[in-house]
Amino acid sequence: ALTVRFLTRRFIGEYGDMEFIYSHNLTVDGREILFHIWDVPNSQEQAEESSSEEKRIQWADSFVLVYSICDRASFNILPLKIQFIKAAKEGQSQEKVPIVIVGNKRDLHHQRVVSSEEGRLLALSLDCGFYEVS
Asked: Which reaction is the catalytic activity of this chain (predicted)?
């Protein structure tokens, strides 16, 4: 849903568990930037092939990992995902891979189970950026 919001400036209430690749042009600081966004929903099953995940990681230049502040499990999976990404990307080069952690559904603060502080501390400990959005 965040990807669709970024691309269209519209909010959609229902969003399926489908994997999509989007392309989008955006002007940033006077420069035209072409984004290719591979939107991959997190499968709750760990049956996904690691080779498929490795392919996605090799394809990307940066990563935005989104969790729901109302879902502890979506937050708890982040350290393993980030370690996997860093091992795959930084093992090939000396450059730091850009990773941002995003806590979503900030508007549902009454259902919050993951505090902002936990998100900030995780991002700090893993050398990632951090934002909360709704």
From this structure: GTP + H2O = GDP + phosphate + H(+)
